[in-house]
Amino acid sequence: MSDRSPNDAVSGESALFDGAARAPEVDAARVTGGSPDNTHDVIISLEDVDVYYGDFHAVDSVSVPIREKEITAFIGPSGCGKSTVLRTINRMNDLIPTARVEGSVTYHGVDLYGGNVDPVQVRRHIGMVFQKPNPFPKSIYDNISFGPKIAKYDGNMDDLVEESLNRAALWDEVKDKLDDSAYALSGGQQQRLCIARAIATSPDVLLMDEPASALDPIATLRIEELMYELKQDYTIIIVTHNMQQAARVSDRTAFFNIDIQNGQRAGRLVEFSETATLFTTPSEKTTEDYITGRFG
Amino acid sequence: MSITTRSNKEATRREVDRAIRSGGGDWRPLAFQGLLLLALITSFGILVVLLTDIVTNAWPTIQARGFSFVTDGLSLNPETAGVFTGIIGSVIIASIVALLAFPIGISAAVYLEEYAPDNRRTRFVDTTVRNLAGVPSIVYGLLGLAMFVPLVRMIGLGGSTGGKNILAAGITMAALVLPIVIITSIEAIRSVPATIREAGFGVGATQWEVIRSHVMPSALPGILTGTVLTLARAFGETAPLLVIGVATGYFAPAGDASILDRLTGPYTALPVIVFSWSRQTQAAFADTLAPAAIVVLLIVLFLLNGAAIWLRNRAEKRW
Questions:
Q1: Which end of chain A is less crowded, N or C, counting CB atoms within 10 A of the terminal residue's CB?
Q2: What ipTM score was computed for the predicted complex, to two decimals?
Q3: What is the Cβ-side half-sphere exposure of residue A288, based on CA atoms within 13 angstroms?
Q4: What global pTM score does this model have?
């Protein structure tokens, strides 16, 4: 375990609730994430990534290096393309018929959009957790075992289910009701189940698309603590609307914004740096305006 | 001071009291509600009158014959005529529909929803299927006569009827309900939340695995309901059968005929019996036997609808 928990600096109840109730501003004292030691290698590299939905230019020339076993946060106002960029990384955008990706996305140096790359295999290495908890309408056990089963996992499934639930900090709560419907769990438990499900196929990257936005503050906190533990073993990229969350958990932060040029709007990366730097001494005026709550 | 406050309070109370009491003036909401109720009473009333009339007319037969009306075959004698032959015919037709229309229709729906690219051609097919569901059943009868009767004859199952047998009838009925099976299946598949698909793809499932393990189980209640209801349709349709040569007269059930001979020989169906009895010159047939046959037909249809509801609830309750 790390000696620095993400929530050490946010003490007391007010910190728990400020994400929902207060204007989104982050003061420097709250930035607990974000002074990574630069010892980790780049595992995923986005270079000049453009995404189009039909004629709509959703994302314009985004370049971000993602380092191994760090938490990288994507923040920005609605419609700035942060989720779209996230979904290029495990090729979820392939599911939208009109979506087109240009530029290069490499994973361990391999072009994810190269010929012969199977999106299904990509998603087994790069797992995903979605905005709304979306367990399968099946038992808790079957939710976890589905991924390994289709990946022809030949080890002991019971052990794998237990280990995955353990890592998602859910085992103790569900160990006596593995055959119950996943829908019987609370929202926060469902989201941890979804994290366990993503872990079960042993990916090394986890994409989280606003994983706590549908949860109450307590459940949100548990997810954040979990992310902090998971980064020992996984590379995590999180999209979030909640700037405190980015400031608390992430090592590096990418700030996206909507850019209007010639009447065309497109999402663009404004600034990418260590979280501590981005939240205390941003180099762009727009970043500063956003994190101090002047727009967004 | 306190007196002023109290009187102020009292004035406010009176004002609020006046403001929040209903004026009692507007009659339009009431009239609108009345019209809605009238519409309900009218439609329900027609149904009740119809049912009462039929059951009243059928009562003598039901009382005199009891269950033997269901188990007796066709006869020229109103004392012994029953609907058994028709029930068997209808059950066989419904079975052929289930065997042909369900697998083909559900597969077509899965293809249209999950695999077909979203382009003009797919939308054209989709619209066409929806229009086909509204084509009058007699047109399917003509289609059956022109295509399925010769087809059955061609593959050597024409039998003594030259193809105008229950096999051709079943295929025609399957074609008739096919668009409905496709549409209800499409709707059921469409109603599966996108989040479940995403979850499947997110853990590295192929499209086939997502469809088989998540989309189909979730869509099943809707598909089941739709398909059972189409069975009821196949059970009740009369017009296409008349066109493709159902026997409206009486034939002796072939005592020692083989199953193949029976399937390829003359046949009849429950609604056809109602039709032919109601045209009989012998008063007993039109007056009380036809209504009794209608009662049997209605009971079968209610049972099928009930089965549809039961199946849907059962499939939905799993989680």
A1: N
A2: 0.83
A3: 6
A4: 0.80
